[in-house]
From TrEMBL:
Keywords: Methyltransferase, Porphyrin biosynthesis, S-adenosyl-L-methionine, Transferase. InterPro entries: 4pyrrol_Mease, 4pyrrol_Methylase_sf, 4pyrrole_Mease_sub1, 4pyrrole_Mease_sub2, CobA/CysG_C, Siro_Cobalamin_biosynth, Uropor_MeTrfase_CS. Belongs to the precorrin methyltransferase family. Its EC number is 2.1.1.107. The keyword Cell membrane does not apply. GO terms for molecular function: uroporphyrin-III C-methyltransferase activity. NCBIfam families: cobA_cysG_Cterm, PRK06136.1. PROSITE patterns: SUMT_1, SUMT_2. This is uroporphyrinogen-III C-methyltransferase.
């Protein structure tokens, strides 16, 4: 696929809507004042999908559109908003690709003779920037382009070098700023132009982060991918709370499960029968909204109703919130037998 075709592939739709040039779209103002009700009580440590901070961070993509941000004329999660948003970004993405290509050629590489750039899948941990690895910080500060998810904390993004370009590709339930296929093509297009591309993910890229899908796609296209692990939410939050994930005589294994159903279904824990193990620590990622049905399923499959458990949101950040369940859940380690940890801070 030619590079120009790939840029067209980055347009709003992969199926029924054909690409249209930006000047043929009636651009609506971007909306930044519409937040999920769950986050209205205090600011989030992460990137909200339509926050002013996000648009200021990515202002190179929008140029003169920032003055429109505070005007909200339609719901921010509409398909139209996503289409318009990507249309605004396309000219600057094309311009950046050309700049990177010319830079490589000016460094002594004949056109078409230089190899592709590097792609790094970088785990940024559960939110606390001090939990980043030294390698992650070094790569973040040397990147040409960084594609970042919603659960990469603002404090981590503050570490990015002054010359880097940021592109938000976050996903929330019911609204994906970029589809996974579009993210794949972005990574490939800029890598082929010789850029150092960093894909920032909350937690660890290979734990419910779809890092494996991105790595497999790029490797099939001949692009070298390097993975820099991050502290996954389970480890970071367990350490923060002083809860061992495994302990001799208490839990002989630990299981990581996703609380999200695939394709928006209502049955999140389809492996509940095997997960309801009283001798294993169960960690559920992204399980806040499905926690009631998840709990009932575990009970149905035999997990004792007195099982101590804790639900954590925004773990390791100053905005961390926690709710514990079960009698004497936090009176000594011995009472935490067996244990369940619900980590909302994940990819």
């Amino acid at each position: 696929m030619a590079l120009a075709d790939r840029l067209q592939f980055l347009s709003p739709s992969l199926s029924s809507i054909h690409f249209r040039k930006p000047n043929s779209i009636n651009i609506h103002p971007l909306c930044s004042l519409h937040y999920d009700s769950f986050f209205t009580s205090y600011s989030s440590p992460f990137t909200e999908k339509h926050s002013i901070q996000r648009y200021q961070r990515d202002q190179w993509l929008y140029k003169n559109q920032l003055e429109q941000i505070t005007s909200c004329s339609f719901p921010p999660d509409s398909h139209l908003n996503r289409e318009n948003n990507i249309a605004l970004q396309l000219p600057e993405l094309k311009k950046l690709l050309q700049v990177l290509r010319e830079k490589r050629e000016s460094e002594g590489c004949s056109k078409g003779k230089y190899g592709p750039g590097n792609v790094f899948l970088v785990g940024t941990g559960p939110g606390d920037p001090e939990l980043l690895t030294l390698k992650a910080v070094r790569v973040i500060q040397s990147a040409d382009l960084l594609l970042y998810d919603r659960l990469v904390s603002n404090d981590v993004l503050d570490l990015i070098g002054p010359d880097a370009r940021l592109l938000y590709v976050g996903k929330t339930a019911g609204y994906h700023s970029r589809t996974q296929e579009e993210i794949h093509e972005l990574l490939l297009s800029f890598a082929e132009a010789g850029a150092t591309v960093v894909r920032l993910k909350g937690g660890d890229p290979l734990v419910f982060g779809r890092g494996g899908e991105e790595m497999e796609f790029l490797q099939q296209q001949g692009i070298q991918v390097k993975v820099i692990p991050g502290i996954t939410a389970a480890s970071g939050i367990a350490a923060e709370l002083g809860i061992p994930l495994t302990q001799r005589g208490v839990a002989n294994s630990v299981k990581f499960l996703t609380g999200h159903a695939r394709k928006g279904g209502t049955d999140p824990l389809f492996v509940a029968e095997n997960a309801a193990d009283p001798d294993s620590t169960l960690v559920v990622y992204m399980g806040l909204s499905t926690f009631p049905s998840l709990s009932l399923k575990l009970l149905h499959h035999g997990l004792p109703p007195y099982t101590p458990a804790v639900a954590v949101e925004r773990g390791t950040t100053p905005q961390q919130r926690m709710v514990s369940f079960g009698h004497d859940a936090f009176i000594g380690l011995a009472s935490f037998i067996p244990q369940s940890l619900n980590c909302e801070t994940s990819k």
